[in-house]
Design goal:
This protein is an alpha/beta fold and 349 residues long. The chain has a single domain, classed as Alpha/Beta hydrolase fold, catalytic domain (Rossmann fold), CATH 3.40.50. The protein is 46% helix and 12% strand. It is built from 12 helices and 8 strands. Strands 1-2-4-3-5-6-7-8 form an 8-stranded mixed β-sheet, sandwiched between helices. The chain is globular. 48% of the residues are buried.
């Protein structure tokens, strides 16, 4: 009997040991480039770029999406906006190198409040809030809950409304008692690494993924057990939260621009972006044809023009979007390769 138990436990222990080793390796390859700030019992991580003398934009706060970390948004915007604004790139609570905090941080409202507290600690009084994908739900919550800190809102392929259907199976497994711990500590790393390449390709589809995207943005950090668990909990709570809170978007009166792609198969443009444009009075919706879920990388110039418009400059965003479409023409992945399956790293929203 003891031999049989040992034979069963040995491969599990080996898998846990391998996953622990790989998690440390992920952190070695992608060390924290930000700074941890205590916001009242736990620490938030962020890259804070002080206001330069050449600033011509208001402060900017960037919120990454699901399965991500602040490297995703620094990769898209840090260099293009260099010298133009004070910037705060945030690891959401429980993601990247930020600590989780209390149970309220499983909801967009709690994460929005955490970012507001971080802004106070870092001396950022009022900012344009930029949210990509899942970060869009948090940006919307921020606009509703902290209007005094909101100079404007920029949504990039945002997840903001309840959607039909459910979430992927592994999020349910990851949050289950006992079995979830084993799954997160023994299965997620080997399974996620096998699907990392195709998963990140899927996020950019139908557009080419930048060749250095994985090397620059550290998506494997989400495979660490605690990070994966937090990501799964966020997903499980999101639908119910949006069902109860999307009705409050009409309370937002900050200047708002929504940028989305018409080929986004991860967060549906017709449901989320159009719904947000309907709900926020005076907002402007820009749909970039041929773009999937990553307008932050594929239409960065459109996003920057939107920030300029939010800051009060005259900008014809539709015309700038058309130029972006022309630039990207012919760059889509050959659709004959078939549909890329869902990824354990990236999944709607």
């Amino acid at each position: 009997m003891l031999t049989e138990v040992s034979a069963l436990l040995a491969p599990i222990a080996a898998a846990i040991g391998y996953s622990s080793y790989k998690a440390r390796q992920f952190e070695h390859v992608y060390p924290n480039i930000g700074e941890l700030t205590d916001i009242g019992g736990y620490r938030m991580n962020a890259v804070h770029v002080p206001r330069p003398d050449t600033a011509d934009l208001p402060p900017l706060v960037f919120i990454h999406g699901a399965s991500g970390n602040l490297l995703d948004q620094t990769g898209a915007f840090l260099k293009p906006l260099e010298g133009r604004a004070e910037m705060l790139f945030v690891d959401r609570p429980g993601h990247g190198y930020s600590e989780r905090g209390g149970p309220e941080n499983a909801l967009p409202s709690g994460q929005a409040d955490a970012i507001a507290s971080l802004m106070e600690k870092r001396g950022v009084k009022r900012a344009v809030i930029i949210g990509h994908s899942f970060g869009g739900a948090i940006a919307a919550a921020f606009g509703v809950r902290h209007p005094d800190k909101t100079a404007g809102l920029l949504f990039l392929a945002p997840a903001t409304h309840p959607w039909p259907g459910g979430i992927d199976w592994y999020y349910h497994v990851a949050t289950a008692p006992i079995i979830g711990w084993l799954f997160n500590h023994a299965v997620v790393v080997p399974l996620g690494l096998r699907r990392l390449e195709r998963g990140t390709v899927n996020v950019f589809r139908p557009n080419p993924r930048p060749a250095d995207y994985i090397a620059r943005t550290g998506p494997s950090l989400v495979l660490r057990p605690r990070a994966f668990y937090n990501n799964a909990v966020d997903f499980k709570r999101l639908h119910e939260y949006l069902t109860a809170n999307a009705q409050h978007y009409s309370e937002i009166d900050a200047p708002t621009v929504i940028i989305t792609g018409d080929k986004d198969e991860i967060v549906w443009e017709h449901l989320h972006s159009r719904g947000l444009a309907r709900d926020i009075r005076g907002s402007e919706l820009i749909t970039v044809k041929g773009v999937g879920h990553k307008p932050d990388y594929l239409a960065t110039d459109v996003a920057i023009a939107a920030l300029e418009k939010i800051a009060g400059r005259p900008r014809d965003l539709a015309a700038i979007a058309r130029k972006a479409e022309e630039r990207m023409a012919g760059s889509s992945i050959d659709q004959t390769v078939g549909t890329v399956p869902p990824s354990i790293v990236y999944s709607a929203p």
